[in-house]
């Protein structure tokens, strides 16, 4: 029984430490993104389009974890800033693609290297080997949590 209690306590401590670490790292990212007049969702859309090329609007929401209604709003905001353009699919006129404008591409190229440095600074408390270990362990944790979530809640 003591082992179960200790395991439960350690699991709770892990959750708290993980959440606090995540919040601290994200604070660095958010501050940098906001300094460029963007919110994190807008940045995520620009990042996706920059690195993956034109995407159907419906798929963008799935990839940056926002609802289809929100992606329309975000696309509108980015279009007003002349960073994004919508294009009808040549294969299916019901599908609308989003792509970066030349200005959007230049803007993202201008801010991304600094953002990458901000993230590196945020995690500089770990050396390279510790980062590798953290990545490995967090992937393992994430996959396990995802799998156990599929089985349903504990009753």
TrEMBL record:
GO function terms (MF aspect): DNA binding; DNA-binding transcription factor activity
SUPFAM superfamilies registered for this protein in UniProt: Winged helix' DNA-binding domain
Annotated SMART domains: HTH_MARR
Keyword Plastid: no
Domain (HTH marR-type) ranges: 11-143
GO BP terms: response to stress
Upper taxonomic lineage: Bacteria, Bacillati, Bacillota, Bacilli, Bacillales
InterPro entries per the UniProt record, alphabetical: HTH_MarR-typ, MarR/SlyA-like, WH-like_DNA-bd_sf, WH_DNA-bd_sf
Keyword Transcription regulation on entry: yes
Pfam family membership, one: MarR
Keywords per UniProt: DNA-binding, Transcription, Transcription regulation
Protein name, UniProt field: MarR family transcriptional regulator
């Amino acid at each position: 029984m003591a082992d179960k209690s200790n395991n439960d306590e350690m699991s709770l401590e892990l959750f708290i430490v993980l959440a606090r670490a995540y919040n601290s790292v994200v604070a660095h990212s958010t501050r940098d993104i906001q300094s460029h007049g963007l919110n994190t969702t807008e940045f995520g859309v620009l990042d996706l389009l920059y690195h993956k090329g034109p995407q159907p609007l419906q798929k963008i929401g799935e990839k940056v974890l926002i609802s289809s209604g929100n992606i329309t709003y975000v696309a509108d905001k980015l279009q007003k800033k002349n960073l994004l353009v919508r294009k009808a699919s040549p294969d299916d006129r019901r599908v609308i693609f989003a792509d970066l404008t030349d200005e959007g591409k230049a803007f993202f190229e201008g801010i991304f290297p600094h953002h990458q440095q901000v993230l590196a600074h945020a995690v500089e408390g770990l050396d390279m080997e510790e980062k590798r270990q953290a990545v490995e362990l967090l992937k393992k944790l994430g996959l396990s949590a995802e799998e156990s979530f599929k089985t349903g809640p504990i009753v």
